[in-house]
Structure prediction request, 685 residues.
Amino acid sequence: MSALTQTERDILAGIADYLIPEAEGMPSASQVNLASELADRVFAVRHDLVGPVRGALGKVPGLAGEVAAKKLADIDPEGFHAITTVASAGYFMSPKTREALGYPGQESRPFDPDKTTDYLEDGLLQPVIDRGPIYKPTPGL
Amino acid sequence: MAKNPGGRDEVADVLIIGAGASGSVAAAHLAKAGFSVVCLEQGRKIDASEYFGDKPEWEVTSQKQWHPNPNVRDLDTDYPINTDESDVNPLMYNAVGGSTILYAAHWQRFIPSDFRVKTMDGIADDWPFTYEDLAPFYDQMEEEMGVSGLSGDPAYPAGKAPPLPPLPINKIGRKAAEGMNKLGWHWWPSPNSIPSKPYRGRNACVRRGTCLTGCPEKAKASMDLVYWPDAIADGARLITGARVSKIETNEQGLATGAIYVDRSGRERRQRANVVIMCANSIGTTRLLLLSATGKASNGLGNSSGLLGRNLMMHPYAAVNGLFDEPMESWLGPSGQVIHSMEFAESDPSRGFLRGGKWQVMPSGGPLGLRAGYSGKALDDAWGANFHKNTLRTFGRSFEWGIIAEDLPEYENRVVLDSTLTDSDGIPSPKILYRNAENTRKLLDFHVARAREAMEAAGAIEISHTSLMRDCGWHLMGTARMGNDPETSVVDQWCRSHDVPNLYIMDGSTFVTSSSANPTATITAIALRATKHMIANRRNQEVAA
Prediction:
C-alpha cells in the first residue's frame, strides 16, 4: 500500500523541486524520481515520517512548491522538517545523484593490511617518534 | 508469582545482568572455567544482515532506529531516560553485545596518570590499582578483541604490540597529521578493535565507515561476535528479552538472584550464588536502586550513599575543517584514523586540570553533512544553495573530535524518575548532570588548540561545536571502586563492600574518567576481576 495519495505525492513533488532544483550540474528532485519512487523507499524504513509528512501536505492543498514550502516552514516546522528529511534522504539515495556528486556510497574498499604504514616509509610519523615519550610515568606513586 | 525459567529450580553459579562489553567478557571466561553461567539481556540478538551500512538507506536509518540515543530510537528493547536536567544525553544500545553494537571501536588505553589523579593533581581520587597492574589485562583484551594498531605510541609506556597491523589512516588522517607536525604536536595511527586481517572467525574491515550503526561485514569486534559463540559452546545460557526489575537478597543480605519480566509479560526468577551487574553506569544504578530493601533502604550495596553519584559522561567538542581538495572523507574505518594525546596530561598553567584526547574520524555521508544546515534560513539551505553547499563541503572536510576528561562531581548522578517507566512499568532513570567549570575551561582550551591544528593543516574554513548534546557514549563512575567502604561502592575486584556475592563490572566502578575511550579499560578491569573470582572461587561467600 502506498504511503501517499497521488494528490499528496504531487504536492510533495512540487515542494521537493523547489528545495532541490536542477542547478550546479546536479539533477533536480523530479529528475531522480524523488516523489514517485525514492520517497517510498524512505517511508519503508522510516514509518515515523509518514504521519508528519502527510499532515503537513494536507495543510497546503493546491499551492505551488515554493509557496507551499514557505508556508509550511512558517506554520508547521515539524512537518516541514519531516518533508526536508524525506527529500534530502531520498535524493542522496539516488545513483544519479551520487554519480553527479562523486560519491560511491559507503562502498566496500578493501586494502592490503601489510601496506598501511606509508607514514613510516615517507617520514610523516618520524618527528613524533623522535620527540619520545610524552606521558607522565607513575611507578612508585 | 515469579517462576524459574522453564520451570526448573536452577541455581546458577553466576548470574550476569547485561550481555554488553563487561558481561560478555565475564560470561565467556567464567563458562570456560567451568562455572554455570546465566546471562539476562533485555535486548535481542542482532543479525549482521539487519544493519544498513551496505544499503542506500544507511543514513536515514541512522537518524532513527540505529541512533545511539535510546530516547530517539524508542525501541521496545530500550528504556526511556529523563534527561531534562542533563547537559549531555546518555547513549547506549540494548542487545546481545550491548553498546559495542554501535560503538566506534576506538580501543584506547587509559594513560598511567589517569590512575593517580589525586596524587599527581590533588583532585578527585586515586584508583586502588595502577596502570602497571592493569597492563597484562589490556594486553590480553587486545589479543581477544583483535585490535589493529601500531606499537610504540609515545603517549604510553612501552608494551606488547597489537595483534594486527594498523588500519589505513586515509587522506584525512594524513592531512590532520601534517598540521600536527607543523605545530610539533603528538599524533599516532589509532588502535581500533576492527581487524585489518581476518581474525578468529571475523572478516577483515573493508572501510565502509558505518561502524557507528553496526558492522554489516561482521568485522568490527562487537561482543556478540567475539565472545558469545564460545560462551554458549562452553555452556553459558543467554536469555534475551529478559528485563530485570530487581536483585533479590536473603535475610543475611546476600544476593540470591534476580526477578525479570520476559517478552510474554511473565515475571520470572533466576536464582544464583553470585550476581554480576554489567548493565552500564545508568542501567546498573537503576537496578540497584530498584533493589532497595528494609536493610538497604537507599539501594542495594549503597551504605556509602555513593551509588548513582559521580556520573561521568565525557563531554565532547568538535572542530571541523574544510579543505580545498577532495579527501574522500566518507571512507572508513569509523573507527579513529589518528589520535592525539598532546594535551591529555595536566598542566595547571592552562587554568584547569586533567586533559582531553583528540581523534580524527570520517565525516559520513551527505545527509549527515546536511544536518548542519537545519537551522539556516530557507534560501540559504535550499534551492541552488543546497547543491553549492554540498559540492563545496562534502568529501572535503574532517573533524578533530575532542573527548574531555570530566572529573567526578558528587551532584552529577543517576536517580529513579518519579513517573517515567519502561514498557513493563519498571521505573526509568533520571540523569542530573552539569558540566563543571573545570570541564568548560578544558573544552575552551582544547577547541582553541584544535582550531590551530586545522589552520596548520591548511583548512580554508574552520567551525566548531563547543559541546555536543548527543555525546554521552562513555558512562562511568556511579559505583566507584576503592579500599574504603565509606567512600566507595566496590573494592578493586569489583565486589560490593556491602554484599559479598554482588559484583559490578561495568564502567560504574571508574574512580575518574581519563580522556580516553573507556571500553578497553572496562573490559580489562572486568577480565581482571573475573580471573580473581575464578582463582578465589573456594572463598566466595554465597547464600545458603
Observations:
- Residues 437-457 of chain B form the longest helix (21 residues).
- Chain B touches chain A through 77 residues (CB under 8 Å).
- The mean pLDDT of chain B is 96.
